[in-house]
Amino acid sequence: MTSASEVPPELSPVFAYIDTNADQLVARLAEAVAIKSVSAQADTRPDTIRVMQWFADKLRARGLSVELVDIGTECRPDGQTLPLPPVLLASLAATDPSAKTLLVYGHLDVQPADRADGWRTDPFVLTEVDGRLYGRGATDDKGPVMGWLNAIDAYQRTDTAIPVNLKFVVEGMEETGSDGFDELIVSLKDTFLADVDYVCISDNYWLGTTKPCLTYGLRGIACFGVEVECAHKDLHSGAYGGSVHEAMTDLTALLYRLVDSKGNILIPGVMDDVAVQTAEELAAYETIDFDSDEYRREIGTSRLLYEKKADILAHRDEYRREIGTSRLLYEKKADILAHRWRYPSLFIHGVEGAHSGPGVKTVIPGKVSGKFSIRLVPNQCPDKIAAQVVAYLTAEFAKLDSPNRLSVVNRPPSKPWVADTRNQNFTAAKLAVRSVFGADPDLTREGGSIPVALTFEEVTGKSVLLLPIGGCDDCAHSQNEKIDRKNYISGTKVLAAYIHHLANV
C-alpha cells in the first residue's frame, strides 16, 4: 500500500524497526490493556492510578523527564471521596536546540467492560482474532498512546535523531469528565506549555475502514436534566392511581416535545445561529471516501434518519444554482456527513427514578428525571441554548396545567471546535499519511465532542490536529472494542513520520 519512493530515507530504518518488532509492539498494548483503568468505578480507581505510574515508568526508561501532578480528589454522588489519577507531564528534548515543540495529548482510562455485557473475549486480555486486537482501550485511547511510545522506540533503537521536542500531557479521567484537568492546563500556560508550537491528539477514528483521515472539527455538547416531582415518596398505584398527577406522565409529555420522529429539534431558536452550509463545504464532503451502505451495516439498521426527511437540506436548490448543476453527486452521502458533523442534533438518553428492572412494580414514582443533550455546532452559544431550553420546557410544562414541581438542570457544556487546516501542522500530517499509505487523507469533521481540543487551542494559541489511527468499526465505548493490527502498526508509522515532516515543513 505504501509507495517506497514516498518514504523519506531517514524514515526507512524507523519503518523497518516497526515492521520487524510488530509482535513486541502488540505485546506492549496487551500490557496496557491488562490494567483495568476504568475511571468511573471506585473499585478500579487504584488501577487507574497505577496505569499512570506504569506509563510514567515507560517514558522515564526512554529518557523523558516525567512529572505526575496531583490534581486532588473526587467527591462522588454517594458521598465517597476518591483520589483523582495524577496527570502525567513529560518532555524529551531534541538534539537541535532550535527544533519545534510538539505537544501530544492522550488518556489511559477506559470505559467499563464486562464479559457478561456481550464481549466475545475477556475485555482486559488483548486477544487477536483474524488480525483484530480486541480489548478495552485497544483503540480508545491506549492503542494510540502506545503508538507514540512505539514511535519513540523506533527512533531511539535505530539511532535516528528525534527531530522535534516532544511534550506529553496524559490524563486518567477523560472517560469520566476530566475532573480538574482544564484547570491544570490553564495553570500551565506560561510554564510547561509556553514553548509549544503544535498540538496533536489521537483520540478519534477514521471515517471508514480503509482510508486515513485528519480531523479538523468537532461538535460541542450541552447536557440537560429535567426533573418532575409529584410526591415526597413513591406511591402504590392501586391506592393512589387516578387521584394524582403522575410525574412520569408529565415527564414523558415534556420529552416528547423536544424532538420529532424525523430528528427535527422542536425548541424555538436553537437552529437560528447555525452557519449556512456553503457550496464549497458541500463540495468538499462529496470528495470524501464514505460508503453510506457500509455505515448502515456497521450500525445495524436498514434505514437512516435522513432518508425519511422531506427537507434534508432546505437550501439544496440554492447550492445547485451556485455550483451551476442540476444535480449534486452523492446527495445521500453529503447529507449523512452534514447531519453528523455540522448540524446540531438532540438526543434523549434515559430516565431515572422509575422502575427499570425485570418484572412488574406497580408504583407511581414520586420523582423522575429525564436526561437529554444537544450536540452544538459553530456559532451556537451554549449559554443561549441553555436559556432557550429552560424557557421552552417551562412554557410547555405550564401548558400541562400540572401541580407537580419542575426543575431543569443545565450541566457544564463543551463548545464546538473547528480548526484551520491551512498550516504546517496539517501539512506535516498529510505528508505523514502519504509516506505510509501512498495517498492523501480525507479531511473530516466529527459529530462527537473532545473538549480538550478547544482547551489546548485556547491556552496555547497554536494549531491543534486530530490524527486518528483506528477505524470507524473499532467499537469504542461498546462491546468488543478493538483495533486492527494493521491500523496499530501503520498508525505507529504515521506518528513517526508526522514528527519527521513537522520538523521539515
Question: Numbering strands along the chain, what is their spatial order in the largest sheet?
Answer: 1-4-8-5-9-19
- CATH architecture name of the largest domain: 3-Layer(aba) Sandwich
Beta-strand fraction estimate = 15-25%
For CATH, the homologous superfamily of the largest domain is named as: Zn peptidases
User: Averaged pLDDT, please?
Assistant: 91
Domain Peptidase M20 dimerisation: 217-398
Pfam families: M20_dimer (PF07687), Peptidase_M20 (PF01546)
Family: Belongs to the peptidase M20A family.
Protein name: Peptidase M20 dimerisation domain-containing protein
List descriptors:
single chain; 505 residues; alpha+beta; Aminopeptidase; Alpha-Beta Plaits; 2 domains; 6-stranded mixed β-sheet; 4-stranded antiparallel β-sheet; 15 helices; 20% strand; globular; disordered N terminus; metal-binding
Describe the structure.
The protein has helices at residues 12-20, 22-33, 45-60, 142-157, 181-187, 237-240, 247-256, 279-286, 292-299, 316-323, 331-341, 382-399, 424-437, 451-460, 485-504, and strands spanning 65-69, 73-75, 81-83, 87-92, 101-107, 127-129, 132-134, 165-171, 198-201, 213-218, 220-229, 235-236, 345-352, 363-364, 367-376, 405-410, 417-418, 442-446, 463-466, 482-484. It is an alpha+beta fold and 505 residues long. The protein folds into 2 domains: 4-76 and 85-218 and 417-504, 3-Layer(aba) Sandwich (Aminopeptidase), CATH 3.40.630; 220-410, Alpha-Beta Plaits (2-Layer Sandwich). The strands form 6 sheets. Strands 1-4-8-5-9-19 form a 6-stranded mixed sheet, sandwiched between helices. A 4-stranded antiparallel sheet has the order 13-15-11-16.
